[in-house]
Task: inverse folding
């Protein structure tokens, strides 16, 4: 008869047998009974139509898990069987978990994208506008990568007035996501106009740091306008969706952030030409106005009036001589009568013309600027036009002007004498 063994011995034998037999297994199943423990461990089960097995993934391995486990999700697990002898329970110790039929990174990307979209991280209404003429730009990138040299080269030709502040950052590998996040927060405190976060191209694994939630949080919380410029044009990262502006490449980020100095030079040339043409038109119009005024002044000047009178006198003298020649054959009496009448007429006309000349001369002298300065006499102007008292009303604002002074007055009282 066999000697019985203890329960502990049996469980120990089962533990030894299972753990040495199932050292590495690949199991596909559906996730159920999922628990993310405060300790960082993940407890769950995988099942198919007929069976269920308990699983655990300890914290040391969860940091390599790129996606979030979800109930009902089909996964492929790499691990080994362990037995907890005190209870006689066995479970699958997971070393690696992959989504069934889909890459882990692709699933993690879609999960985080959906999560951040629901939180409003991609909302266009809250995205900041880039300043038109940035003076200072912070570059969050690797100090040794080709991206920084490409950006400097583009900036030198596009807008050399800008100042760059390089924040050397780890952009791939372990710890890159934390370093990028810290660099963004540091750049946000430097009072720059724009932050450019980026790096050159690479595999999805190389660019993965920009798909981490910690980086997305830092971009979303930044107060400074931020451009995401990661990889090549075909690469779309989580940072691209959260940032205020997405650039296809680091060089493209500089093209977006900076104005083109050559375009501004051409614009200034066009403005200068327009201004010069405008000045020429104004000067030409003023010149034509001066020519017209000179003609009008000449036509109405005292000299022209004197010329007219002299021509009249010459005409009369000519008429007088003509009459004399016609009347030579007439009798002396008629000639005397006509002569006397002509002399009287001529004398009266000359007196009249002389009076007109004296009147013109008197008016000319009275209106000469040097003669205007008489006590008690001023020129009245209203709205820069010369007027008289009978055209004014109470409350009008007028100017009283002498050759040396101008006084601005308001009409308080106006009556007829």
Result:
């Amino acid at each position: 008869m066999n000697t019985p063994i203890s329960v502990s011995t049996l469980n120990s034998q089962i533990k030894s047998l299972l753990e040495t037999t199932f050292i590495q297994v690949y199991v596909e199943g559906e996730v159920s009974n999922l628990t993310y423990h405060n300790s960082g461990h993940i407890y769950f089960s995988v099942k198919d139509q007929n069976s269920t097995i308990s699983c655990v993934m300890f914290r040391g391995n969860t940091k390599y898990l790129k996606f979030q486990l979800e109930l009902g999700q089909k996964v492929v697990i790499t691990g080994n069987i362990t037995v907890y002898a005190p209870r006689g329970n066995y479970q699958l110790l997971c070393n690696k978990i992959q989504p069934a039929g889909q890459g882990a990174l692709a699933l993690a990307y879609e999960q985080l994208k959906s999560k951040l979209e629901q939180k409003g991280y991609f909302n266009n209404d809250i995205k900041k506008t880039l300043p038109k003429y940035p003076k200072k730009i912070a570059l969050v990138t690797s100090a040794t990568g080709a991206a920084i040299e490409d950006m400097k080269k583009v900036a030198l030709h596009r807008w050399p007035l800008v100042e760059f502040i390089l924040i050397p950052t780890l952009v791939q590998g372990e710890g890159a996501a934390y370093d990028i996040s810290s660099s963004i927060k540091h750049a946000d405190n430097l009072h720059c106009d724009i932050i450019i976060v980026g790096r050159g191209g690479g595999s999805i694994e190389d660019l993965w740091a920009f798909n981490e939630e910690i980086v997305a949080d830092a971009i979303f919380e930044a107060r400074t306008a931020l451009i995401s410029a990661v990889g090549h044009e075909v690469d779309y990262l989580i940072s691209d969706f959260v940032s205020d502006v997405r650039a296809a490449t680091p060089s493209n980020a500089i093209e977006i952030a900076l104005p083109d100095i050559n375009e501004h030079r051409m614009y200034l040339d066009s403005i200068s030409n327009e201004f010069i043409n405008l000045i020429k038109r104004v000067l030409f119009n003023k010149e034509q106005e001066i020519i017209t005024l000179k003609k009008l002044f000449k036509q109405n000047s005292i000299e022209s009036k004197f010329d007219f009178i002299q021509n009249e006198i010459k005409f009369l003298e000519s008429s007088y001589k003509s009459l004399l020649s016609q009347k030579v054959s007439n009798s002396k009496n008629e000639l005397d009568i006509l002569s006397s009448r002509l002399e009287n007429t001529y004398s009266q006309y000359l007196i009249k013309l002389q009076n007109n000349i004296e009147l013109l001369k008197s008016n000319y002298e009275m209106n000469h600027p040097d003669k205007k300065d008489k006590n008690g006499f001023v020129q009245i102007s209203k709205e820069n036009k010369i007027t008289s008292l009978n055209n004014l009303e109470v409350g009008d604002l007028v100017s009283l002007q002498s050759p040396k002074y101008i006084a601005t007055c308001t009409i308080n009282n106006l009556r007829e004498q």
Observations:
- Residues 69 and 129 are 37 Å apart (CA to CA).
- The mean pLDDT is 85.
- The chain has eleven helices and 14 strands.
- Residues 302-367 form one domain.
